[in-house]
Amino acid sequence: MVSTLIADRLRWRRDASERDRDALRAAFTAYLTALARARDAFSRTEPSPERVGKGHIAIVEHDVYAAQQQLALVAQQPILDMASRATLSVLDFHDVVVVGRDSDTAEYVHAWRAVREARQVLVDEMRTALRRT
Q1: Is the CB of residue 20 less than 8 Å from the CB of residue 73?
Q2: Per-residue pLDDT tens digits for 58-89
Q3: Could you tell me if 56 and 96 are in contact, meaning their C-beta atoms sit under 8 angstroms apart?
Q4: How many alpha carbons fall within 13 Å on the CB side of residue 83?
Q5: What is the pLDDT of residues 7-35, one digit of tens each?
Q6: What's the pTM?
Q7: Which domain CATH number covers 85?
Q8: How many distinct structural domains can be found in the chain?
Q9: Which element (helix H / strand E) includes 129?
Q10: Pairwise CA distance, residues 97 & 68, whole Å
Q11: How far apart are CA 108 and CA 71, in angstroms?
């Protein structure tokens, strides 16, 4: 009887761990997908200097903030901080594009690389979190 209880407890823990990992993976995927949609849309945005500083409005349309809220429910603080930095880097990229910088300018390349680097740091931390769960 004791061994059955122990086995049931172990099975319950394993199932709970799998559910937690699935919830994390879903939240991570939703956020990264929304962020990529926003970044890709911003890269095709026409210059419009009056839209500088208004990327937060455009980023709402791509559900980035909603996905960040979902992350807040399941992820640890370091991941939330990295997600915020990734979002800010996409907002900075938006501003570079709407002021009219072309893809061959240093400002554009710098902003694009900052987005890519912030995303990669975040993805690495997300992978680590999934392995720990």
Answers
A1: no
A2: 899 999 999 999 999 999 999 999 999 999 99
A3: no
A4: 26
A5: 667 777 776 788 889 999 999 999 999 99
A6: 0.86
A7: 1.20.120
A8: 1
A9: helix 106-132
A10: 23
A11: 29
94's tokens:
């938006």
For every residue of 12-66, DSSP letters joined together read: HHHHHHHHHHHHHHHHHHHHHHHHHHHHHHHHTPPP-GGGTT-HHHHHHHTTHHH
CB 62 within 8 A of CB 91: no
Angle at 42 between CA 51 and CA 112, to 5 degrees: 110
Region for residue 16 given its phi and psi (left: phi exceeds 0; alpha: psi -120 to 50; beta: otherwise): alpha
As given in the structure block, the two tokens for residue 2 are 């004791």
- Our measurement of the distance from residue 91's CA atom to the centroid of its chain's CA atoms, rounded to an integer in Å, reads 13
Domain assignment of residue 117, given as a range: 2-132
What is the rounded CA–CA span in Å between residue 55 and residue 94?
6
* Residue-wise burial string across 60-95, b where 16 or more C-beta atoms lie within 10 A, e elsewhere: eebbbeebbebbeebbeeebeebbebbbebbbbbbb
